[in-house]
Write a structure and sequence with these properties.
alpha+beta, two-stranded antiparallel ribbon, 3 helices, 36% helix
């Protein structure tokens, strides 16, 4: 059985974007504001990380997220 990181890498291999490591106090809105200059696009990050994130409150410090290009 592949590890979660392998499955996540496979799912994002055909997409362009960046990796981001979750910091203390982060939210998807805050991360979207940083990368897209628009916090309302947080759902793009959630959609790109469906395997690792069950919902928008499932962020964990140190977790690596894929931030897709728009």
């Amino acid at each position: 059985t592949p590890s979660l990181s392998l499955v996540t890498d496979k799912d994002t291999s055909n997409s362009t974007g960046k990796k981001y490591t979750v910091q203390q106090g982060d939210s998807l809105y805050k991360i979207a504001s940083q990368y897209y200059k628009d916090g309302s696009k947080w759902n793009k990050i959630l959609d790109a990380n469906k395997i690792a994130l069950k919902n928008k409150k499932a962020l964990k410090v140190g977790q690596e997220l894929f931030i897709p290009d728009l």
